[in-house]
Amino acid sequence: MTKVELYAFVNNLRNNLYLYNSYPISSKAIASRYSEITIEEIDFSDTRIGGVLMKGNKCSFIGLNSCRNYYEQNFDCMHELIHFWKHPLNEYTCYSIPRNSYLEWEANEGAAEMLVPYYKFIPEVYELYRYICNTQQPIDYLTHLAERYFVTPRVIQLRINSLSYELSQYASGVPLNNLRIISKKCQERLGINIPDFSIRLDFNCELEWNAVIGNGRC
Amino acid sequence: MNQELQKQITGKRIRLQRETKQLSQDMVAERLNMKRSNIANYESGRVMPPGNIIKELADIFSVSSDYLLGLSDLTNQTQDKIPSGIYMRLAKEAEEMGIPEKDLQLILEMYKRFRKAND
């Protein structure tokens, strides 16, 4: 499944769950709509463990790490929900710990798109970028956006990085509906090399360097 | 439950499980490293098997000790026991990801609750 297909899958879920205008959203509240899902808080000693999903025919269990804060749990729970919706494996078990695999990419990217949808996020980031350009004042955009979407600043940071190509298109005047949505890996294959958009938000460094080297891009 | 009654129930359940699993008394005796006559005595209710033998019989028949002792009518032990394949997979993944043993135990306890809910 490509990034654009994954986003379409998430959008379909969002519509079915009537979440389109319900942001910020609580993953636990969404999970609680499913009578077959039991959510447990587990006192793990390792804070790296986000969650555990055990998916069964009758009942599924999502275990969330009680050591993690509300925003962290919100992402962890959505990560497990994406596994639940997307990966219909009997007795599937997932330790939500950072690791590279296709299923984990789908769960992470899908959770990010559900909690921080690109169609809302990109215009907001662009507005912040314009504000920073106009005022030349650095702002704590990570915290601002994290609180807006009930996620951690780290999720916002990764989201900006993941959407840098789409953000660059939007900044160049491409309408939201016409954005070309492609994953980082696909961008690499196509020879597209767009720097992290957060560079533009962090004190406008890129603009300054562009002025020095004569690259007129803004 | 008096001891005589418990011996009778345990004996009947051992026989039932042995026959269900299509095992002879000799085969069970060999697994337990004892004489066939011991198994015959257990099954007839003449002798009550000691605790360690009950546990070994429960493992051989994949039932709970409580069932053999007549303390529970549930034969299936899956509520209390994690299949070795699942355990190995969970433990292997946990080891690969550096999950502490204490946390693995919490995951295994969760797995037991999950299995119970799906039985």
Could you please describe the fold and organization of this structure?
The complex is a heterodimer of chains A (218) and B (119). Chain A contains 11 helices and 4 strands. In chain A, 31% of the residues are buried. Chain A is an alpha+beta fold. Chain A has helices spanning 3-16, 27-31, 70-86, 102-115, 118-135, 141-149, 153-162, 164-171, 184-189, 198-201, 205-213; strands at 37-42, 51-55, 60-65, 92-95. The longest helix of chain A has 18 residues, at 118-135. In chain A, strand 2 and strand 3 form a beta hairpin. With 119 residues, chain B is mainly α. Chain B has helices spanning 3-20, 25-31, 36-44, 51-61, 65-68, 84-96, 101-118. Chain B starts with a helix and ends with a helix. Chains A and B meet through strand 1 and strand 3 of A and helix 6 and helix 7 of B.
The average pLDDT score of chain A comes to 87
Strand content bin of chain B? under 5%
Major sheet summary line of chain A:
4 strands, mixed
Q: Which two chains touch over the largest interface?
A: A-B, 22 and 19 residues
Compute the CA-based radius of gyration of chain B: 17 Å
Distance between the termini of chain B: 29 Å
Largest sheet of chain B: none
Helical fraction of chain A equals 40-55%
Which structural class matches the secondary elements of chain A?
alpha+beta
The radius of gyration of chain A is: 18 Å
Structure summarized in a few sentences:
The complex is a heterodimer of chains A (218) and B (119). By secondary structure, chain A is an alpha+beta fold.
Output the keywords.
heterodimer, A: 218 residues, 52% helix, globular, disordered C terminus, B: 119 residues, mainly alpha, elongated
